[in-house]
UniProtKB/TrEMBL annotation:
Gene3D superfamilies: Glutaredoxin (3.40.30.10). InterPro entries: Glutaredoxin (IPR002109), Thioredoxin-like_sf (IPR036249). Residues 55-107 form the Glutaredoxin domain. It comes from the Bacteria. CDD domains: NrdH. This is Glutaredoxin domain-containing protein. It comes from Ahniella affigens. Pfam families: Glutaredoxin.
Length: 127
């Protein structure tokens, strides 16, 4: 009887450890594949063709894209919007590391997602 209980206990222990390790690996891989929300670099080549201070990669139906547009308009920031639903734009978006919208470029920052604090640092007074 004790041998059976010991076997059952070890089985449950190994299954629990295995499930826990699998879950931790899944979470770790998911986090590793997410782009950094704010990346500093030289993004002037993204802006140049559009003659704008900011480039916004977005979709018409994305609620966070709507919030980004509203933020830029409220703060008087000039931006050029590119619709990721257009196949040619989608190709450029992916080439720039895009995986989620909104994705905003300034001359020296890429911001993925809606982040009012990061956007505020784009304001002229914050530079």
């Amino acid at each position: 009887m004790t041998q059976t209980l010991k076997g059952i206990f070890l089985f449950v222990l190994f299954v629990s450890v295995g499930l826990g390790a699998g879950y931790a690996a899944r979470i770790g891989l998911a986090k590793a594949s997410e782009p950094e929300p704010v990346v500093h670099g030289d993004f002037r080549t993204v802006l140049a063709p559009h003659q704008s201070d900011l480039v916004l990669f977005a979709t018409k139906t994305c609620p966070y894209c709507a919030k980004a547009r509203e933020f830029f308009q409220e703060h008087g920031l000039r931006y050029h919007e590119l619709d990721v639903d257009d196949p040619a734009i989608a190709q450029q978006f992916k080439a720039l590391g895009g995986s989620g919208v909104p994705m905003v470029f300034s001359a020296d920052v890429r911001i993925v997602g809606f982040d009012a604090n990061a956007y505020a640092r784009l304001l002229p007074a914050a530079r």
